[in-house]
UniProtKB/TrEMBL annotation:
Residues 167-177 have a biased composition (Basic and acidic residues). Residues 153-166 have a biased composition (Basic residues). This is Programmed cell death protein 2 C-terminal domain-containing protein. Residues 149-177 are annotated as: Disordered.
Amino acid sequence: MLRRWWFMERLRPAVPVQRPGELSKEQQLVLDEWTTARERLDRLVSARVTAVGDVLRTAELPLRTNRLADNSGADSQAEGDCAWAFDAFQAAGKLLDEASDLPDLAAAAVLADRALERFAAVHARAAGQPVPKAARRCFYNPLHTAAEDTHSPVRKQHRQKARRRTGPREAAADRRPACPSCRRAILAGQTPDVLPALVPVKLSRLRTARVLVPYYSVPQQWSLWSVCACGAYGDEWPSLVLRGEHRRRAAAARKV
Ligand SMILES: [Zn+2]
């Protein structure tokens, strides 16, 4: 997505003088590209959230979480996990309705997927089956296929050998969880296919431009998603979204 977004970095110093309210050609290009990406992402994420909703609606809660047979720790964990899964799914729907930028939509997809994962874990535990491992999402774009597990023994061995061979690039590739495609790009010294975010940049007292930057470089006061790979890490995000924290931070960015 938006493989050409970083051209804005080069355009930024050359933005011509414009009257307030008038968009430069470069700004229009950025906004057009962002709008196209947003429409595409909106369709994809809507479909994903709807599909997860269908599964959650038709799946039955494991018996022991519906009606506690005893007060064991397993039951309270199952109750907590089910509550988190439903909150995460509700937060995904809210983000889809109120998204102000691409990372909000990505977070909707991530939280919906995580709701399903958590729900599947409750079922597996109740059935005495091994709990499926949660997906490790690509840090550069959490909508990419699952990241490679660099902690597996085979991977670690390979990494140690490769590090001796390639040094800094291998170290950069291992710094964050990366999908195979992003990892290949980093190892080749190229920019991975990063999820962009639209942020304001103050050009003068009267003029503010919008530029596309990697979502993880957006200041935390403007976005919940820069520190957690769009909700992929940590459990606090559904409750923050349900309290409207994503809207408050987006409003702070609009004040620039
Ligand atoms: Zn990736």
